[in-house]
Amino acid sequence: MTTVTTQPPVERPKIARSRRYAVNTRYVPVLATLVLFGVMYGIGIANYEGFSDTQVLLNVFIDNAHLLTVAIGMTFVILSGGIDLSVGSVLALGTVIAATLLKAGWNPFVVILIVLVVGALIGLAQGAIIHFFDIQPFIATLAGLFLARGIAQLISTKAVGITDEFWTTTATERIHFGGFRLSPSALIAIVLAIAAALALAYTRFGRNTYAVGGNAQSAELMGLPVARTRVLVYTLSGLCAALGGVLYSFETPTGNSLTGTGMELDAIAAVVIGGTLLSGGSGFLAGTVLGVLVLGLIQTMITFQGTLSSWWTRIFIAGLLFAFILLQRIVTRREPT
Amino acid sequence: GCGGDSGSGSGNDDGKITMGFAQVGAESGWRTANTKSIQESAKAAGIELKFSDAQQKQENQIKAIRSYIAQKVDVIAFSPVIESGWDQVLKEAKDAEIPVILTDRAVDSKDTSLYETFIGSDFVLEGKKAGEWLVEDSKAAKGPVNVIQLEGTTGAAPANDRKSGFADAIKADPKIKVVASQDGDFTRAKGKEVMEALLKAHPEANVLYAHNDDMGLGAIEAIEAAGKKPGVDIKIVTVDAVKDGMTALSEGKINFIVECSPLLGPQLMDLAKQVVDGKKVEKRILTEETTFTQEQAKAALPDRKY
Amino acid sequence: MGEPTPAQEPILEMTGVGKVFPGVVALADVDFRLYPGEVHALMGENGAGKSTLIKVLTGVYDIDAGSIRLNGEDVRFSGPLQAQRAGISTVYQEVNLCPNLSVAENIFIGREPRRFGAIQWRRMRRRSAELLRGLDLDLDVTALLGSYSIAIQQMVAIARAVDISAKVLILDEPTSSLDASEVEQLFAVMRRLKREGLAIVFVSHFLDQVYDIADRMTVLRNGKRVGEYRVAELPQAQLVSAMIGKELAVLEELEEQEKPSTAALEQGEPVLAATGVARKGAIEPFSLTIHQGEVVGLAGLLGSGRTELARLLFAADKADQGTFSFGTDTVSMRGPRTAMEHGVAFSSENRRTEGVVGELTVRENIVLALQASRGWARPIPRGRQDELVDKYIKALDIRPANPDTQVRNLSGGNQQKVLLARWLITEPKLLIVDEPTRGIDVGAKAEIQRLLAQLSGDGMAVLFISAELEEVLRLSHKIAVLRDRRLVEQLDNTDDVDVDRILATIASGSATGEDS
Amino acid sequence: MSRLAPIVRHRLFWPAVALVLLLVSNLFFSADFFAVRIKDGHLYGSLVDILRGSTPLVLVALGMTLVIATAGIDLSVGSVIAIVGAVACLRVSELDDQNSVTGVLAAVAVAVVLSLVLGLWNGVLVAAVGIQPIIATLILLVGGRGIAQLITDGQIINVRSSPYRTIGAGYALTIPVAVIIAAAVVAVAVLLTRRTALGLLIESVGSSPTASRLAGIQARRLTLIVYVFSGFCAGVAGLIYSSNISSADGNNAGALIELDAILAVVIGGTALTGGRFSIAGSVLGAVLIQTLNITIYTAGVPGRFTLLFKAVVVVVLCLAQSPTFRTKVFGRWRRSKPPTAGPTPGAPAPAEVAA
Ligand SMILES: Nc1ncnc2c1ncn2[C@@H]1O[C@H](COP(=O)(O)OP(=O)(O)OP(=O)(O)O)[C@@H](O)[C@H]1O
Ligand SMILES: Nc1ncnc2c1ncn2[C@@H]1O[C@H](COP(=O)(O)OP(=O)(O)OP(=O)(O)O)[C@@H](O)[C@H]1O
Ligand SMILES: [Mg+2]
Ligand SMILES: [Mg+2]
Question: Secretion signal: which residues (chain D) (predicted)?
C-alpha cells in the first residue's frame, strides 16, 4: 500500500468549482403559475363581459377566504411531507360548534376561541399519533376526518342557523378602499397568508418544516426538533381549518355537519397547483395563494358562463384544470429524468 | 309574447324576463328531473334562464345568487342546499329589488319578507302520509308490524323530515314498531346493501319504509334475493314516485308511494311572471302532489314523464 | 493492549454497551473512552459496529445494555438533538443533510442567526460562505445542496458539524469521497480543534489517514471490542490483523501482477467510443475510447467532472452532442437501458439515493439490474438467483450473509458491495464504477481491486473512478485526467506516471492544448 | 409464546384479528350471522353478502395497491366506476333483446376497453407528462363524473337483462359470480406480480425511482401499466356495481370509493410512500371495511354515530398495527419486568454475525 501524501506536492490549483444552475429553479413553478393565472384571467376578460372589473378578482378572495385559510394550513403539512384529510371535517365541526354555542347565547369571541382551540386540539392529536406512533398521515387524518364529522353530526344532524349580531354584522361588513370591497374574512385570510409566508421564510419553525419534508430522517440526525415540528404542523393545520370554519360561517351563517365534504381535495389541489411537491420539502406559500385563485377563477368563469348544465360544469372544471396543469407542466419542464 | 303584458320587466328593455336559477346540484335522478322541468318550462314560458349548478355546496349557491344580483336578473329562484344561513344574501337581493322564489326546500329566515314565496313539497307531510297509510293498512294486521326504515343521507333535510313525519303518524298504532333504521344514502346500491344486512338481523320485519324510491328499489333486490316476496311478505312504502318506482308499484312490488314531484317548472314560471309583475302571491305554495296505490299507479304510469 | 495513561478524566466513557437488531448482535459489551484533546479512531471491518456505536451514543438507537458517561455524568440521549445540546456534534456515515435546502441553510439550520426572531438570511449566507472558504471550498451557498456532488455534500456536513462548536466531534467516514487535498483541509481543521481541547472520534477505512491524524484508536470486530491502542504503538500490519482477525496478504499480490501494455490493448476491439460528447453545464466535449480488457482510470479534483463523464457514458444524463459507438455501430443513447443493452454497467457514487434500493432485500438488489434487462416477463429462476447471490455474497464477503436482509439494515460498506454485485452479475462488457471502494474496509477493498483486475484480465473493460489516486494508479492501464469539467489529458500508466505527475497535470491543465 | 411470535409479528395479524372481532361481534345482534345456507340453489348468508358486497372495493383496492406501490395514487377510480357502469348499462338498454348474451358481452367489452382507455389517460398524465399523480387523477375524478352524468343524462339507466345481472348479482356453482370474477382478477394480479418480476420491479420503482432508473428499469412503462391496470380494476368493479342493482347511477356510483380503497390498501400494510406492497393485505383490508359497514347496519348503529364508530375502529386498528405504538405503550411495561440485562458477551449470537 502506498502512502497517501499528506502534503500535496503541487500547489493546489484554484478552481471556481461546481457553481451550478445560474437561475434559481426553485421559483420557476410559482412564476409559471403566476403567468398562467394571468393568461387565464386574460381569457376570462376576453370572453366574458364584466370580467375585467377588478372587483371580480377581489370577489374570488371573498368567496374563497375559507379555502385559502384551510390551504395555508395544508401548505405547512404538505411541505413537511405529510397530508391532512381532516380539514374539511374540522371546518364543518367548527361551523357546527359555533352555531350551536351561539344559539345557546354564548359570547361570540369566546365561541371563536373555543372553535379554534378545538381545531388545534384535533390537529395536535393527529400530529402526535402520526409522529409518536408512526402512523401514516393519510390514515391518521382520515380517522380525523371521520371523527370530526362524526362529532359534528353528534352535536346536530340538522343545520343550525346563526343569528348572532356580531356574526351577521361581520358577514355583511365590507371594507372599502378605492372603490373596491373586501370582506373581513378575505382580509383575515390575506393577512394570514402573509404571516404564514413570513413564518415559512423567516422562522426556525418554517425552515424546519422544509427540512422535515426534505428528509425527516436526515433532519432528525441533524438535530432538528422533528417531533415538535411535525406535531406543530398538524396543529397549525387544524387551527387553520377551524378558522376556515369560522370564516365560512361568516359567509354562510350556518352550522352544518355536511359542509366542507371534499374540501380537503380542493385544498390539496390548490397547494399542488401552486407548485408545491406532494412529497414535501419544496414549494412556497405564494404558490398556494395562486392555487386558490386559480380554482376560484375557474369557478368564477363557470358562473359567468352561466348556461352550463350540471355535468358540463364538472367537465368544464376538469378541462380548465387539465389545460392549466398541462401548460404549467410544459412551462416548468426541465430535462426528463 | 309569452313574456306577458308586463312591459315593465325591470332592467331589461326587451321585455323578456330573465331568471337566475341556482340549483343544488345533480345528486339524484329526482334532481335532474327537477332541473329539466325548470329548463323546459322556462323555454316554453319564454323566460330567459340563467342556470348554475352548486354541486351541493352552499357557498357556490351563494356565489351564484350574488352573480345574478350583479347581472341584474329580473327574478331569482333557487333550491337551498340547506335551510339556514341565507339572510345575508337574500338581503342583498332585496336591496337590489330582485324578487326571490324558493323552490323545493325552505329557508329558516325569520324575516319572511326576504323572499316572495316558497314553492315545494312538505317533507314532514310526506313522511306523515306514508305513516298514515301504514296505520290504515295495519288495522287488519293481527301481529306486530315491524318496520325497517331506510333513511336518506344523515343530516339531509328530507331525511330528517320524512323520518319525523313518519314517526308522528305511526304513534297512532302501538302495533307498529320501527325495528331498524339505517342510513341508505338515497341510493339504490346502499339501499340494497343495507337491506341485505337488516333482513338477516331482523327476520321479523314485515314492512319497509324507504325515504326515496331508489333505496326502495335496491331493497327489493335484496328482499328477492332473500327469497321473500316484496309487497307481500314485506310491504313497502316509499317517497318520490319516479317512473321506476311507479313501475314497481304497478307490478305489486311496492305497496304505496307518496309523491314528491320534481316537476315544478311550470308552476315556478307562472309564479315568476306574477312576481315580476308585482302581483302578491301566497307565501307558501305546495306543489301539486298526491299519493299512489298500486291501482292508481297502473293508471298513472303511461303518462309518467320521468 | 496499550493502555493510555490518562492525563485527565475521559470526557466520554461508554461501558458494556450492547445493541441487538433482529437477528444481528451489532454491539456486545463494548467499552469506549474518549479524552479531551485527542483524535480517537474507531476501527473495524465493514459491519463491525462502528456506526452503530456512534448511533447508540447519540441516541439514534435505543441502547440495549451498558452505560454512557459524559463529563462524569450518566447520560442517555433520546436523539441527536439532545446529544447536540449536550455538546456532541456528529457527521453520520451517509450524508444526512437536506438536499432540498440551500447549502447555507444546511450548515445553519436549527441555529440560524436571528434578530427579533426572524432569520437573517444575508448574515447566514455570508457566514456559511466564510466557513466553507475555511475548508477551501468556494460554493454558491444559495444553491440547493442536492445539486452538488456527494463529496461536496460531505464537506458541507463537516462544515456544519465543525461549526457547532461542541465538546465532542464525531466524524463517521467523512473522507470516503474526498480527494487528498480536501482531506488535508479537513485534517488541518481537526488539528486546530484538537488543540482547542475538543475530543474527536474519527472513523475511516484509510489506514494512512488514521495514522496521520489519530492519537489513539479502538478496534471493533464483529460487534466486540478487540482493544484500545495508541496509534504510535501499533504497526499497520498488526492493526489490520486485529481488525480482521487474520493476516492479510492480498495487497502485495496485486502489486506484483503484470499488466498488459496499453499498446497491446489498443489492438483489441474498442468496447465503447465516445466522440465529441458533451453536456451543457456538466462537461465540455470529450472523446474517449475504451478497449476490451482495458482499465481506464479517471483522475481529477472534486467537481472536475468525473461523475458527469461517467453518467454520460451510461446515458444516466443525456448528452447534448457527440456520438457513441459500441464496437462498430453508432448508437443513439436514449437512456440507461440503451447503455445496458450494449453491455455497459454503472455503479453510482451516490449509493444511498442512486444505488441500492434500501427497502428491498440483498437478493433483490443484487438481481435487480439483470432482471431489468431481461424484462419483467422473464423472471430469473429462484435457483439461479440463489446461485448468483450466494456466489457474490461469498466473493465480496457481504455481511450478514443472509440474502433476505433488507439492504437498508446493512452497514455502509456492505451496501456498497451489494451495489457492485448487482452489476457484476450482469457480466458487462464495460463496467463503470464511480467510487466503488467508498467506505469499504481494507480487506474487502483489496478483494474488489483483485476482482476488477481479474475481470479485466478476462476481457472486461473498466472505467474506474476513485478519489484515491493511488488506487487509480494501481489498477488502470490508462488514466484520463479531468480538470474544470474538461478532459485534459489521457496518460498511459507507465512506470513514470505517479501521483505527483498526475497532480501536476491537473494543476497545469491544458496538457493536450485543448484549452483556450 | 415464542412459537406464536412470528404470527403475531406478521403484518396482517392485526387486521385479521380486527376482522375476526368484527365478525364475532355481529353474533350479538344477529344470532345466525355465521349461518350459510343453500337457498334457491345458491349460497345464502351474511358471510356471502360480505364477500359479494366487498368485491367492487376489493377490485379497486387491488388496482390501487399497485398504483400506490409505485408511490402514486389514483383518485379517479370512483368516476371510472360511474362511467363504465353508465356505458355498459346504456348499451345493454339499447339492445333489442336485453337478454341476448352476445349483446351483453359486446357491451361489457366496450366498457372494459373504455376502462383501459381511462387508465391509460391517467397513466400518460403521470408517466409521460409527469404531472403529480394526485392532481393528474383529480382531473378524471372531477370530469369523469360529469362524463358519466352526460352519458346517463343525469338519470338512472335501468336494464332488465338477466345475463348482465349475472355479473354482479348472479351465482355460478352456488358461488356469487362477482366473487368469482374478483378472485380471478386477484389471482391473475398475484400471478403476474409474484410469478414474474413485475412485483419486484414495481417495488423497486416505488421505493427509489432514481436508483431504479439507473438499474435499467423502465419506470415509465411500469407506471403506465399500473394505472391502466387500476383503470381496468375500477372498470370491472363498475360492471359489478351496476349489474348488482341492474342500473347505472352516474351521480352516485363509486362516490368516495377512492378513500375506502386507499384505506384498505394502507390497512393491508402497503405504505403510501410506495415500495413494498401486499395484495393479500389489500384484499383483507377491503373485506374488513365491508365487514365494518355491515356490522354498522347489523348492530343498528344510528346514522349520526357511524362516522365516530368508523373513526374509533380505524384508530384502534392502526395503533394495534403500529409496532412503534406497541413498543411504546406495552413494550416499556414488558421490558421493565426482567431487569435490563444486555446480551451476554459469551452468548452464541455473535457467531451469527460472523457466519
Ligand atoms: N437498523 C438496523 N437493523 C438491523 N441491523 C442493523 C441495523 N443497522 C446496522 N445493522 C447491522 O449491524 C451491524 C453493524 O453495522 P454498522 O453500520 O455499525 O457497521 P460499521 O462498522 O459502521 O460498518 P461500515 O464500515 O461498513 O460502515 C451490521 O451487521 C449491520 O447489518
Ligand atoms: N443536471 C444535473 N442535475 C442534477 N444533478 C446533477 C446534474 N449534473 C450533475 N449533477 C450531480 O452532480 C454530481 C457531480 O458533481 P461534481 O461536479 O462534483 O462531479 P465529480 O467530478 O464527479 O466530482 P467528484 O469528484 O465528487 O466525483 C453528480 O452526483 C450528479 O448527480
Ligand atoms: Mg459505518
Ligand atoms: Mg464523483
Answer: none
